[in-house]
């Protein structure tokens, strides 16, 4: 993947990515969401929306998600410059590097979207899946957790962008281990 130079500051205004994408097949509730990209970032909105949708609807993910381009929605996923991330994530201090959940928006830091983190050892796609699942997980009512033990997969709600605490990187809420998503209640 070619290097993308991410500006520290973009316009501070979001554009909703047009279009819809159906939820994965199956049973259970469907979560309506939309995707936004801050204007002035060097990313294609449709590519970002496709990555978000594929991640959210993966069988290892949280459930079933319907992407729309208008409300009402339960949440949005927004690709955001570092400066706007700082503003949108207040009172959390992101240092221009972290992503966050705030209000009804998963704020995905564009700098980290472009570069990933050391903990993922060059697996940019895996890191992107992690950050989407982690921040949307907050929107579904899940909270931070700790590493369950040395050498075990890190829970997706662990702050893997900061540290793996001796766990292994894991981008999925329900990795192939027999666990299944029962609902989106936040349990």
Quick overview:
Residues 5-165 form the DUF3152 domain. The chain has 187 residues and is α/β, with parallel strands linked by helices.
At CATH level 3, the topology of one domain is Collagenase (Catalytic Domain)
Distance N to C terminus? 37 Å
Fraction in helix = 10-25%
**Name of the level-1 CATH class of one domain:** Alpha Beta
CATH architecture of one domain: 3-Layer(aba) Sandwich
Give a quick account of the main beta sheet: strands, pairing sense, barrel closure.
6 strands, mixed
Number of helices: 4
Q: What is the residue-mean pLDDT, rounded to a whole number? A: 93
Specify the overall morphology.
globular
Rg estimate, integer Å? 16 Å
Strand content: 15-25%
Name the structural class. Answer: alpha/beta
What's the order of the H and E elements? Answer: EEHEEHEEHH
**Residue runs with pLDDT of under 50 for 5 or more positions:** 178-187
What is the number of beta strands? 6
Pfam family, one: DUF3152
Protein name: DUF3152 domain-containing protein
């Amino acid at each position: 993947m070619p290097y993308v130079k991410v500006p520290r500051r973009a316009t501070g205004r979001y554009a909703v990515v047009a279009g819809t994408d159906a939820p994965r097949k199956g049973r259970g509730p469907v979560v309506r969401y939309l995707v936004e990209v801050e204007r002035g970032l060097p990313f294609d909105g449709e590519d970002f929306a496709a990555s978000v949708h594929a991640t959210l609807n993966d069988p290892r993910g949280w459930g079933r998600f319907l992407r729309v381009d208008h409300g009402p929605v339960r949440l949005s996923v927004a690709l955001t410059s570092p400066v706007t991330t700082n503003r949108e994530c207040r009172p959390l201090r992101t240092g221009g590097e972290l992503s966050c959940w705030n209000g009804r928006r998963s704020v995905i830091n564009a700098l980290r979207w472009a570069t990933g983190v050391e903990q993922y050892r060059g697996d940019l796609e895996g890191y992107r899946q992690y950050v989407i699942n982690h921040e949307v997980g907050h929107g579904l009512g899940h909270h931070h957790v700790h590493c369950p033990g040395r050498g075990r997969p890190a829970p997706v709600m662990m702050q893997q962008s900061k540290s793996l605490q001796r766990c292994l990187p894991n981008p999925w809420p329900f990795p192939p281990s027999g666990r299944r998503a029962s609902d989106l209640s936040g349990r």
